[in-house]
Amino acid sequence: MAAGEAGMNKIAIKLASSIFVLFFLLCAIGPSMAQTLSYADAIEQLAGACGGDLRKYCRGVELGGGHLKACLDANQARMSGSCQQARMLVYASIARRAAAQRDIGDICSADIARLCGTSHADAHLVECLLSVSPAAIGPACNQAFTDTGWRTERAQQ
Amino acid sequence: MIKHQIYAVSALILSVALTVAFADTRLSSGQITNSLAGVSDNSRLDLTAAQMRQAVMDNIQNYPGAIPPHPLTFPQLANLAQFTVEINFDFNSAAIRPESYRDVGAIADALHNPILLGYGFLVIGHTDSVGGRQYNVGLSQRRAEAIVAALIDPFAVNPAVLQPVGMGEEQLQDPAHPTSGVNRRVQLINVGKKFCFGRSGEQFQCQ
Questions:
Q1: Contact B95 A121 (CB under 8 A)
Q2: A39 to B112: CB separation less than 8 angstroms, yes or no
Q3: Given an 8 Å threshold on Cβ–Cβ distance, is A42 in contact with B8?
Q4: What percent of chain B has pLDDT over 70?
Q5: How many CA atoms does the CB half-sphere of B69 hold within 13 Å?
Q6: Coil, strand, or helix at residue B164?
Q7: Which of A22, A43, A58 should be substituted to probe chain B, the one whose Cβ sees the most B Cβ atoms within 10 Å?
Q8: Consecutive 10-residue runs of chain A (157 residues): their mean pLDDT?
Q9: What SS3 state is found at A112?
Q10: What is the 3-state secondary structure (H, E, C) of B37-103?
Q11: Residues of A in contact with B151 (CB under 8 A)
């Protein structure tokens, strides 16, 4: 093997591994930008990124009642960079999905009245919003519907 | 050089395949939603959480022993849509272990599915037979409450639709192996439609 070719090989491997890493970063980050994470994926990402920190600083702390978040907040300066980043992304995603699921009836009220004939954020609303083209509903309603996760969750069943 | 590129591409395909295989073995919110959705009818359940707690106490008093000689049953619940999941807690504690966070999140995803909107759910905690029966009732009650607390915050499930009940070891999943891990579980039961939500989130009684 010529020296030049070996060099090329190294570059090719580096390039391939960079693309590889980029691909997985995009997979991980992409959905949290465009849409919200499911609660399962969100909290799993937190448990994964903060595993060591949780064992060190939040052992025995309850997930519920705001206790885990309070522990993460109180110890954030000592947490790893990846845990700090996950903490912000994950809680923001959970809050955005929860707000969308809570408020979609209000945000979409005009579209619902026009297209769906219902005033309730129920299963019928989801069926209706799925059946119409995204272009037919307002952008705020469309974004809220995406943020609820119901578009994709419904499709997975 | 082509060889190396082939390696890189195969590694990529392999890791994607592994990710997919791994994802398939995990609990999905769709499974939970489907199990909880097939409710038989919307008639009002003739059994309160308080009556269930009393029945647990009566079972301990009426049938004493290290391991319950007489398993407690609730015929009213037998035909209701339900789902059982193993959640890991710290020993003798109500703190959910991080490896179970995902499953609690998946329960929340299911309970937020509009198909289940307005239904009420019993969240029943069960222990194995290690420890006293009376103690285990308290431990499982605290664990059921911890699940409910996590579903409410951070996962924003409406508190009004959740009712925690501690069953202790009075309903062992595997009575032949009373200390087995399969006995330590959380059971969700759909008890029917109790609430409806207006578009501003206001609640009213359905029907």
A1: no
A2: yes
A3: no
A4: 78
A5: 6
A6: strand
A7: A43
A8: 52 54 46 76 98 96 98 97 97 97 91 79 81 92 95 68
A9: helix
A10: HCCCCCCCCCCCHHHHHHHHHHHHHHCCCCCCCCCCCCCCCCCCCEEEECCCECCCCCCECHHHHHH
A11: 64
Is the torsion defined by CA of B114, B119, B120, B123 positive or negative? negative
Encoded tokens for A109: 């009220």
Q: Two tokens at A134?
A: 């995204």
| Dihedral of alpha carbons A79, A81, A84, A87, sign | negative
Give the closest of B11, B105, B113 to A43, CB-based: B105
Q: Is A42 on the interface with B (CB under 8 A)?
A: yes
Residue with tokens 């097939």: B38
Q: Using one digit for the tens of pLDDT, what is the confidence trace for B159-206?
A: 888 999 999 999 999 999 999 999 999 999 998 876 544 444 444 444
What is the pLDDT at residue A123?
Answer: 74
Q: Do B154 and A63 touch (CB under 8 A)?
A: yes
Q: How confident is the model at residue B5 (pLDDT cuts 50, 70, 90)?
A: low
Chain B residues whose CB is inside 8 A of the A58 CB are none
Q: Which residues contact B15 (CB under 8 A, 6 or more apart)?
A: none
Q: What is the pLDDT of residue B98?
A: 97
> Which of B7, B93, B112 to mutate to probe the A interface, most A CBs <10 Å?
B112
